[in-house]
Amino acid sequence: MQIITDEAQRLAAVRRYQVLDTPPDGAFERITALAARLFQVPISIVSIVDSDRIWFKSHHGVDVDEIDREPGLCASAVLQGEPWLVNDARTDPRTLANPLVAGELGLQFYAGVPLTTHDGYNLGTLCIIDQQPRELTEAEVASLTDLARVVMDELELRLAARRTVELGSQLRQSAEDVARTLQRSLLPARVPDVPGLDIAARYHVANAEEVGGDFYDIVVDPAGGCAVVVGDVCGKGTAAASLTGTARWVLRATVSESWTPAGALARLNSVMVRAQDEPGDYCTAALVAVAPVQDGRTTVTVGLAGHPHPLLVRADGTVERLGTTAPVVGWTLEASYTEVAAPMSSGDLLVLFTDGTLEVVAGHGATDDQEVRALLAPLAGRPAEDVACALDDALDDALSVATLRDDAAFVVVAVR
Amino acid sequence: MSEDELAAFGVHTEERADHVRLVVTGELDFYREPELRSAVEALLAQGPPQRLVLDVGGLQFLDSAGLRGLLVCRDRSRSAGVPFCLAVTPGPVTRLLDLAGVRSWFTYE
To answer: Which of A20, A81, A362, A380 could form a disulfide with A317 if both were Cys (CB 3.0 to 4.6 A apart)?
Structure first.
């Protein structure tokens, strides 16, 4: 392999492997111990050549963590692409004046094999050292070279593992970004002002990485009233998100033509059934048309499709379930939808929610709204935002003991 | 969702004199629904039974994707010409069938 000797680039490669000053670790200790035993030398080192020092990832037989780059022999060894062998340092012109040779250590034999990255940079060496002259056979040099490759494999493996972890976290982050953006596009940017009504809405996401299947929308009637929908698309992720977008816009377009919930649900049903080659996706929804408010009075018309009943909390604290159960939307053209009307007056609350909300309040898998009704009854006559906050609190309480399994969406409408 | 967060779910087949019974237990949700589908598809592929009963009485939880799974099994079975019915006991499954307004879409054992 072509060895790249540009020192700045070589140092960049050293940094990339993030091995400098890492704690001792078994794999490299085993390799230096093995090298010492195999070649019957007192000292074996895995060294990394830094800008101003030679740092030892593993040092067998010598109790030093690093030495200066001068007079280190490894610094010379990394400048070439093949093993650097000094059989008798006292007579070798490259080393005879070196303090490691002339001084206390009394180094007389050095054999270092560069640790070469896959892209041609020498990070350091695997070297063996003796205090007497020696000569390695060709086979021994080959073995030392193989061991150096094992060291390099370990370093590559660690780098790859670290990259994988980093990549995983980047992917998670970008999935969350996409999910958040998509989710925002599926919900109204803000709750609109509707004369005579006070409206609050919430969307709690179960998993930040995934687009949820719940949606809500508030469609303003220029004549004064509005339509409110809360729905739940079967499934999660981008497939569900695309269906959610369709459901939201079909309902929006249809309901603003006629303000009849049953008609809008029937239309959505036929659009969804026809859009699929075979049944596979469906959604549930509660759709409520609120007539223009006059003197604190209005009429709500409720259509249901496989969805929990919206609840009407009277100013006196009684709670009524609105709507007649009808099948989920999107599976068969045979499904039909009906609507039921109820009067509302000042102080009354209308609460639409998804089954995720139901589960948060009443427990995993709950389908009975009894506990939601019990939670809402004492909130009679309160502003919509107060009621939404009370539901948020219930959600927080539930989350302190369990994770949110499903998204939870709800809309609260109070008649002023 | 990681493997250890997955709810318990099981599906096994029982050969009966006049039908094959697919018994599911645990929690049938978005993450487990594909297992139910493949069980039914495998069953239909290896020689259609006289009748298929999907026994969901032992399910502790069913979400909207789980319900979709039941509907898909019903449709697959029918298009393979195999009479299909559900075996239920009052509980999470019947409550969701009622909530979703689809109780009448199934026949029952």
So the answer is: A380
CB contact under 8 Å between B67 and A235, yes or no, is no
Residues of chain A with CATH 3.60.40.10: 186-415
CATH superfamily of B3-105: STAS domain (3.30.750.24)
On chain B, the residues whose CB falls within 8 A of the CB of A332 are: 105
Task: Residue B70: list chain A partners with CB under 8 A.
Answer: none
Q: Is this complex scored with an ipTM above 0.85?
A: yes
pTM for this predicted structure: 0.72
Q: Taking residues A320-348, what's their average pLDDT? A: 96
What count of residues does chain A have? 416
Nearest to A2 by CA among A151, A85, A111, A122: A122
Q: How far is A311 from chain B (nearest CA, A)?
A: 15
Distance CA A50, CA A333 (A): 73
Angle between helices A138-185 and A26-39 (to 10 degrees): 170
Q: What is the DSSP letter of A402?
A: S
Domain boundaries, chain B: 3-105
Whether residue A380 contacts residue A316, with contact meaning beta carbons closer than 8 Å, is answered with yes
R_g (Cα) of chain A, nearest Å: 36
CATH 3.30.450.40, chain A: domain bounds: 7-164
pLDDT at res. A234: 86
Is A77 strand, coil or helix? helix
Beta strands in A273-403 (DSSP E): 283-290, 297-305, 311-313, 319-321, 339-345, 349-353
Place of tokens 């299947």: A213
CATH class label, A186-415 = alpha beta
**CA-based end-to-end distance of chain A:** 80
Torsion A141-A147-A150-A152 (CA) sign: negative
| B101 to A235: CB separation less than 8 angstroms, yes or no | no
Above 60 in pLDDT, residue A1?
Answer: no
Our CA-based measurement puts residue B57 at a distance from the nearest CA of chain A, in whole angstroms, of 15
Find the helix packing angle between B92-99 and B64-79, rounded to 10°. 90
Contact B99 A355 (CB under 8 A): yes
Fold of the domain built from segment(s) A7-164? Beta-Lactamase (3.30.450)
Name the E strands within A212-338: 214-220, 226-233, 283-290, 297-305, 311-313, 319-321
pLDDT at residue B67, rounded to an integer: 93
Nearest residue in chain B measured CA to CA from A356: B63
Distance from CA of B52 to the nearest CA of A (A): 20
Say yes or no for a CB contact (<8 Å) between A282 and B75.
no
pLDDT grade, residue A96 (50/70/90)?
confident
Checking if the pLDDT of A76 tops 90, the result is no
